[in-house]
Amino acid sequence: MTSFEFRDWACPAPDGGRHDEQALVFDRNRPHRLLVLPAWFDEANKLRRQTVEVMRRLDASGIDCVLPDLPGCNESKAKLPEQTLEVWRDGAAAAAAHFRATHLLTIRAGALLAPAGLPGWRYAPTGGRQVLRAMLRARTIASREAGNAERTEDLQDIGRTDGIELAGWTIGAAMFRALETAEPDGVLTEIEQSALGGPGLWLRAEPDEDAAQADALAAVVAMGMLAA
Fold first, then answer.
1. Which tens digits make up the pLDDT trace of 103-150?
2. Are residues 24 and 85 located together in one domain of the fold?
3. What is the pLDDT of residues 148-201, one digit of tens each?
4. Of 222, 203, 224, 202, which is closest to residue 60 (Cα–Cα)?
5. Dihedral, CA atoms, 195, 196, 201, 202, nearest 10 degrees?
6. Is 122 in contact with 151 (CB distance < 8 Å)?
7. pLDDT at 152
8. What CATH number is attached to the domain comprising 223?
9. Full domain range(s) for residue 162
10. What is the pLDDT of residue 159?
11. 132 and 54: one domain?
């Protein structure tokens, strides 16, 4: 079975400096090198195993893969409420340069961070407004069940001015405002969920994996990269 390792990479900081973040890598210094920008927040938890399974298959096909932590996520020591969309975009671009990526695969909201100039694919992309809507809905449902009803409009006002905690994730005001209008660009080739068969794993209640879907997604990417 193919295996991965963790490596540090130098991520730009808002103050102009650099700090180390981790990346999960399958790296044998091969010419075909894929940067993977994962789903966010609760969807990141649900899709992490599936994302790594796709990378295993690509590694077996002769493709190096990199899955970087962005500031405030996973093992990062940076604080999530301090992150902005531009900080994450700068981090994605820095990871692409550090690991000499030749291609890009974004997953769900990861499409909002796609570095310019890299060819590749966006799998089931979603915009920032949709990301917020799902988490706002989860919070209002939980509040209602706890007997403390909250209105979406009031939560949005709080998010824009003070930041807000949604589904266990504390999102700063600058990030919240940016996500309200952020949309993926049209450069990458889109891979729709229907092309993989079955519903998206982000719809399941718990993290899971699906071998057939992983096979299908990896095959699309590998054929595109190795034919180039």
1. 999 999 999 999 999 999 999 999 999 999 999 999 999 888 888 889
2. yes
3. 889 999 999 999 999 999 988 999 999 999 999 999 987 899 999 999 999 999
4. 222
5. -30
6. no
7. 95
8. 3.40.50.1820
9. 128-182
10. 97
11. no
> Does the pLDDT of residue 1 top 60, yes or no?
no
- Together in a domain, 21 and 116: yes
Question: Tokens for 156?
Answer: 């949005």
Is 60 in the same domain as 18?
yes
- 195 and 105 both lie in a single domain: yes
Domain count within the chain: 2
Mean pLDDT value of segment 24-36: 97
Q: Are residues 100 and 135 in the same domain?
A: no
Burial 18-50, CB ≥16 within 10 A → b, else e: eeebbbbbbbeeeebbbbbbbbbbbbbbbbbeb
Q: How far apart are CA 103 and CA 33, in angstroms?
A: 6
Supply the pTM of this predicted model: 0.95
Q: Identify whether residues 219 and 175 lie together within a single domain.
A: no
Order across the sheet with 5-12: list the strands.
5-12, 18-26, 64-68, 33-37, 103-107, 120-123, 189-191
